[in-house]
Amino acid sequence: LLGAGGLGREVQAMLEAHYDIAGYLDTRADMQERLVGTVPVLGTPQTRPEDETLLFLCSVGDPALKASMVAAVRAHGGRFAQVMLGTLGARSHFGLSCALAGVRISPDCRVGDYVHLATGVIVGHDTCVEDFVHVGDGAFIAGGCVIHAGALIQPRACIARGLTVGAGAEVGLGAVVLRDVPPGAVVLGNPARRIN
Fold first, then answer.
1. Would you call 65 helix, strand, or coil by DSSP?
2. In 10 A of CB 16, how many CB atoms?
3. What is the pLDDT of residue 126?
4. For 23, left (φ over 0), alpha (ψ -120 to 50), or beta?
5. Most confident range, picked from 17-21, 89-93, 104-108
């Protein structure tokens, strides 16, 4: 697993009953050679073990850190796993190293590479979630939305039908989004308002 933080531990708990987890890769010096629960930190993405049988799964919430860690593993020939536990809509497409657990994806959606959709997330029909997006627990994304690359949707946020969340934008905890969110914007509240 890439990332031994809180999300990494959540993903570990989700996967333990189904998969053998060899260990974590983490960028933080203070995490090296430690155990996270019963799982060791094996190194950094740059110093990962050279084992052709290993598959990686990104479990980092921060989109920029996620992109950096994925690039380092890919630069050394690392391969990524895809884990999908939930209700997945017909004719939907899922990219590399998606982590989907306890989610409901409606038909005709596209979920990009290195996306994490946490427990209880609902994604409506014909929605596109681009690469390196993180969507927190219980968020609701209505049909026909576009969530651009690197966006961060905090837990329990609701995004109304047909809206766009720009690249690198952040939708705050429990926000109710009724208008498009520009790239890089941070929105909070009900209704959501831009704060930066």
1. helix
2. 13
3. 95
4. left
5. 104-108
Structure tokens at 169: 């934008």
**Total residues belonging to the chain:** 196
Q: Give dist(CA 137, CA 135) in Å, integer.
A: 7
Sign for the CA dihedral angle at 91, 117, 194, 182 comes to negative
The DSSP string of 105-142 is E-TT-EE-TT-EE-TT-EE-TT-EE-TT-EE-TT-EE-
Buried-exposed string 99-134: b where 16+ CB fall within 10 A, e elsewhere: bbbebbbbebbbbbbbbbbbbbbbbbbbbbbbbbbb
Q: Give the Cα separation of 71 and 67 in Å (integer).
A: 6
Q: How confident is the model at residue 86, as a pLDDT?
A: 67
Triad 80, 84, 86: Cα angle to 5°: 170
Q: What is the dihedral of CA 155, 157, 163, 165, to 10 degrees?
A: -40
Mean pLDDT of the 162-173 span: 98
pLDDT at 52 over 90: no
Strand partners, 84: 100
Which position has the token pair 């961060």?
152
Whether 159 contacts 143, CB under 8 Å: no
